[in-house]
Amino acid sequence: MSHPWRAEGAILAWGLGIACLIGWLEGRIDLALMVLFGAYLGRHLYYLWHLLAWLQESNTTLPDGNGIWTEVFHRLRLMQRRHQRRKRRLGKILKRFRQATEALPDATVVLDGDFSIEWFNPAAAQLLGLRRRDLGLRICDLMRSPRFVDYLRQRRFEQALTLPSPQNDRLHLEIRVVPYTKDRYLLIAQDVTQIRLLERQRRDFVAHASHELRTPITVLKGYLETLIDTETAVSEPFRPILERMEQQIRRLQYLIDDLLYLGRLETSRNETARQKPVDVGQLLDDIRQETEQCHDRHAPLCLAIESRARLLGNEEELRSAFTNLIVNAVKYTPADGNITIRWYETEDGACVEVSDTGEGIDPEHLPRLTERFYRAPGAEIRNPTGTGLGLAIVKHVLNRHDGRLEIDSRPGDGSRFRCRFPRRRVYL
């Protein structure tokens, strides 16, 4: 195909030649040129009219055209075919995606920026009770749980939300909302009923086993203490054996006490009515004094109360969490080190911070420190009476107070534990 502008120039040149010839023969060259340019403009307007009609209605056929318009219409037809091929490919991809999501056992819902429903799979109809007529409606108008509405309003989608199913109160759903474009969200609801049931059975078993073990352990501990305190009860070679047994019994008793307390935290309701503003500064000072009395040789405890703010919460639970952090710092910090306890306000709330100059922890162990019974390598040597449940209790208490635990540590640089609380829990 020749260059389109060459073809257009040839059309204009032939028109000028014919117009000049006719005008010369008739003696009216100016009139002939006016007719030529009028016809030339009419040709362009004719093809523009076809182009606009094609743009407005895709089923309109483009003419073949001539001159520059031949190339224009040819390019548009190529673009149309490429668009149709791309559309067919995207349609196939979308079809496969919908087939895959429809086969998922988890409820999947596509939401727009207003949280209105654009699409959902059959599992969403079964677990969430959605119907085809609900398309276009806001999902919070259909799922009216206050916790779910607040979850969407606050847009704290980094955490999952567990709710009873709107269809069946005996089903528990773990709901996650994932932003995947600027104004689109993917809601995924998973049935976790069996997982919750297994967790409850595990908690019940641990609680019952710990409760049943408490009495025989107490009896054994009493007899061992009696034998150790009575000088004539056992001969001297057996006394170290009894002291080792008494040490292990004491460790087992600590373990049972921590398990029972953790079980109470998991099974008891977090009732706001039973919470009250707690003077955190005074509470930390009490814990510091108790710790100094219970441990003979330890690093000095420096208390920095930088705020008079109080914290809405359960004082007994907060005492347990802060005590675990401070006692851990004492156990893992040498006597010539330093331990600092701070209470201060932040931009988004308040924070209790316990920092030490101990040996520190390898970064690879930090994500698992709050797991039950998890202890970093070497911790058994430095703290033989530890149970591995202290930080699990801290994390659970903070969850019940809308807080979070942050841990910064590096070998040789000590450790820093921060308990952050939101502004709504802080009373100035």
Characterization of the model:
With 428 residues, the protein is of the alpha+beta class. It folds into 4 domains: 4-94, no CATH class; 104-191, PAS domain (Beta-Lactamase), CATH 3.30.450; 194-268, Signal transduction histidine kinase, dimerisation/phosphotransfer (DHp) domain (Helix Hairpins, Orthogonal Bundle); 274-428, Histidine kinase-like ATPase, C-terminal domain (Heat Shock Protein 90, 2-Layer Sandwich). The chain is built from 12 helices and 13 strands. The chain has helices spanning 4-26, 29-56, 68-103, 122-128, 139-142, 146-154, 193-229, 239-267, 280-294, 315-332, 379-382, 390-400, and strands at residues 107-112, 117-120, 161-164, 172-181, 184-191, 276-278, 301-305, 310-313, 339-346, 349-356, 404-409, 415-422, 426-427. It has a 5-stranded antiparallel beta sheet, sandwiched between helices. It has a 5-stranded mixed beta sheet with strand order 7-9-10-12-11, covered by helices on one side. α1 packs antiparallel against α2 (29-56). The radius of gyration is 39 Å and the shape is elongated. The model has no long low-confidence stretch (mean pLDDT 81).
